[in-house]
Amino acid sequence: MTTREPTGYLSTGVIGPELIITRRIPFVIDAVWNQITDPALLGTWYGTYEGDPATGTVVLTTREAPEQPGDVRIQHCEAPTALAVTLESPAGDWVLAVTLNAAGEETDLEFRQRLDDLDHEAADLGPGWEYYLDRLIVALEGGDPDSLRWEDYHPALCAHYGRELPEEPGQMPEEN
Fold first, then answer.
1. I need a surface site. Which of 41, 61, 66, 115 has the fewest CB within 10 A?
2. What are the Activator of Hsp90 ATPase homologue 1/2-like C-terminal domain coordinates in residue numbering (predicted)?
3. Which region holds residue 36: left if phi is over 0, alpha if psi is between -120 and 50, else beta?
4. Contacts (Cβ under 8 Å, ≥6 apart) of 139
5. 3.30.530.20, 3.50.50.60, 3.30.200.20, 1.10.260.40: which CATH number matches 13-161?
């Protein structure tokens, strides 16, 4: 098993509890944007969608659950820097946002997921998004995202994301 270091934290935030993961990706912003918005490229590491994003809704089929496609409402899209969507789910709507900032030949990525009104725990969600963001990077590198092992993320990172939220807005408290 490979040891993975978490790159995210939980925050109480101004809009409620959320999971935040940040990454510096060694690719230019347009390459990263294309990887998260082009259905063929997205399909190599996460899932693909059908429909016209200009309508505000697409149908997403994830690699993890191809038998359960779901509607995705596009809340905000500003190429190549910001994408906010709501994935409709029987377990609660997943409100997600990705912000990209150019840093020369690299890109700073910030991923956020609201945690209120979900049937899933942050202890499971955090490792999952760490896994998918690593798959994104492997896809950008031209590698095989399937070479990553789920077991290196879950349960390995569950304790980091399973801690209580701080009482004040901000990052998670230090691990004991």
1. 66
2. 29-140
3. alpha
4. 35, 41, 44, 45, 145
5. 3.30.530.20
Name the percent of the chain lying above pLDDT 90: 79
The residue whose two tokens read 């690719």 is 27
β-pairing, 47-50 with 18-25? Answer: unpaired
CA angle, corner 158, sides to 47 and 85, nearest 5? 35
Structure-block tokens of residue 77: 């899209």
Residue 175 has pLDDT above 70, yes or no: no
Going by C-alpha positions, the residue among 68, 72, 42 that lies closest to residue 57 is 72
Q: What does pTM read for this prediction?
A: 0.91
How many Å separate Cα 31 from the centre of its chain?
Answer: 17
Question: Which amino acid is residue 144, in one-letter code?
Answer: D
Residue-level pLDDT at 176: 44
Other residues' Cβ atoms within 10 Å of the Cβ of residue 52: 9
In this prediction, residue 128 carries a pLDDT of 95
